[in-house]
Structure formats: C-alpha cells, structure tokens
Specification:
It comes from Pocillopora damicornis. This protein is an all-alpha fold. It is 68% helix and 0% strand.
Length: 262
C-alpha cells in the first residue's frame, strides 16, 4: 500500500514541476540555497531535479512536505498548495487504513499523524459502540456511487446539525472518509490501487473544506491536541522544593540584580 502511495507522491511532484514557470524555478533554487550545494544549481533545469536534491538532503519526502508547501504559499501558488494538501489528506486516509488493520506504518513527520491519531481514537471507541454507518456505506458503494457522494450521505445522517466551520466537524469527516477507504479495501480483496483511487477522490473532496479551518498544518495540530489530551498522561507539576526551581529562582534573582533591577 505504501508503494502505491509513494508513486502517487511522485506523480504529484511531477505535476508541480510541470506547472512551475522558469522564474518560479529560480525562486525555488534561491529558497533552497541552504540545502543545495553552491555551484550545482546551474545543473537543475526542471523542478523535479530540485525535488530530487531536496529528498537526498532529507528536506522533503512523501511524509514531510512543509518546506515545499511554505515555498508555494510564499510565491502565491495556492493551486499547488492545494495539490499538496490533497496528497497529504490522501496519505492520512491510507495511513489510517494501515493502522486500523494493526499495521504500524513508519512515519516520522510531525504533521503526518492525523491518520494514526484518528485510527487510535476510532479503535478506542468502536468496541463499545455499534456503527450502523458501515452497513450504509457498503450499501451505497454497491450502488456504484462515487465515494464522495457516499461521504456526503453519511455526513447528513451522522452529523445533521454539525457546523461546517468547526474543526471537530472536519475531523469527523476525515474519520468517516477513512472508514470508507478501509471498507473499500476490505470489500475488494485488498486491492491497493482501487483503495488509493478512492482515497484520492475523497481527499480532493475534503480539501475544499480545509480553508474553513485555517490550514492543513493547523488542523493537524488540532487533531494532535485532541488525541494527546486524552491518551497522553498529563505532565505532573514539580514539587515546590525541587532543585531545579531553586536554581531557576537564583538565576532569575541574579538576572534582576545585574540586568533588570528596578
């Protein structure tokens, strides 16, 4: 499944490369000057060559796209930012499927955890909750409707009064979309390509809603906070007489005395 996803990542980079103007490629080279050895930039005539160098420098990858997203935002290429966001949504839907099947995908990106977080949340609640939506999803899928239509039907049934502008709503929509991909994967003898095609369609459909919540990165942070707020142990307050507090108090006192006296 990851190999199919990585191939789609390459296709997305090729599309972005083809859409960059010569001036934008020059701007990209300038933006990357800390990561591309001086003197080599003249060898890069197309965007994919720059992307390849950035991958070798571990600046971008299929799971780490902040650097490229920030550049495209800086040059006002929102259509290409949208393309990357749609890929990241696709990736998280597929990562969700892997996690729900008790597979632990190798993820290193700080923002690439939405799929893992949502899968853990669903795993936590599913044992105690009957999910009739799965039967509805299967029935609609068998009617040959587009997966995005299925998502809209489930949204109306499961979230009839939800506000479209709330990040909670979007998180639930992503979870529903991921369940659709999981069911498609299970119902089609684990055909990875078909599941990826469905994930791509759903991601394109969902991406249009990301702007309601600020940015993809902000949404990732929101889901991470909700996940960690439930699953992670709170950090205990240090004891009042702990040694580090004494040291810090002394340090502050000396700073006030030397630099910031009243």
């Amino acid at each position: 499944m990851l190999e199919e996803l990585k191939r789609w990542y390459r296709i997305v980079l090729v599309k972005i490369s083809q859409d960059l103007t010569e001036e934008e490629r020059e701007e990209l080279l300038f933006y990357c000057k800390d990561h591309i050895q001086k003197g080599l930039s003249s060898n890069f005539s197309v965007g994919v060559q720059i992307f390849d160098r950035l991958e070798k420098a571990n600046v971008i990858s299929w799971e780490k796209l902040d650097f490229l997203t920030e550049f495209l935002g800086a040059i006002k290429r929102q259509n290409l930012v949208t393309m990357l966001t749609a890929f990241e949504l696709t990736r998280e839907l597929m990562i969700y499927v892997l996690k729900r099947q008790d597979s632990q995908p190798p993820m290193t990106s700080s923002t690439a955890s939405v799929g893992l977080h949502l899968a853990e949340m669903v795993n936590h609640v599913q044992d105690g909750v009957y999910l009739p939506a799965q039967g509805v999803i299967k029935a609609i899928l068998k009617s040959q409707q587009r997966a995005s239509n299925v998502l809209d039907v489930i949204r109306r049934k499961a979230l009839p009064k939800a506000k479209e502008t709330e990040p909670n709503t979007f998180a639930l929509l992503v979870a529903i979309a991921a369940e659709i991909v999981l069911l498609v994967f299970d119902e089609n003898q684990k055909q990875e390509k078909y599941a990826l095609d469905v994930a791509i369609e759903l991601a394109d459909h969902l991406e249009k809603k990301v702007a309601n919540y600020g940015s993809w990165k902000e949404f990732c942070r929101f889901v991470g906070e909700r996940h960690n707020g439930y699953f992670c142990e709170p950090v205990a307050e240090p004891a009042p007489d702990s040694s580090w507090q004494s040291v810090l108090t002394d340090l502050v006192g000396k700073m006030k005395e030397v630099f910031f006296s009243y």
